[in-house]
Amino acid sequence: MIYGYKRPIYNDKQCENQLITDSIIFDKIFEESHGFSRKRLQLEELFMYLQQGDKIFVQRFFVLADSIRHLMEVLNMCEKKGVIIYFIKEKVNSCDLLSCSLQELLHRIIEFQQDVARHSTLIGMRRAIENGKTIGRPKKKDEN
């Protein structure tokens, strides 16, 4: 089976720019209703469906996992089940990651960490604005 997984992220809150491809026909697409790291029910449901030989397509590393540790847990679980994960933006799959050069792997990890930080910052800013707080440096008094 071919599965897709979507999750709202900082630059794609409606998941409109994820899994856009003409060459892949998905048997089922799992889409989270929120971008938070907790209670990712659709991801848990996807893991329940998986069988050996299945394929999962996600737009990028960060859509699937919120930390390097979480990414490793997902990759290990899928490897044990015989499932391959395809990361569309990074143009790599879970099998190819083992054959990457160290430099290439570090570049991908750095990019992943930047996505995590960006997403967390924007969620925090959104919560602060909802609570009535102002964002940024305080304005200087105009003494003119």
From TrEMBL:
Any one GO molecular-function label of the UniProt entry: DNA binding
Domain of life: Bacteria
Domain called Resolvase/invertase-type recombinase catalytic: residue spans: 2-134
Pfam family, one: Resolvase
Protein name: Resolvase-like protein
Transmembrane residue ranges: none
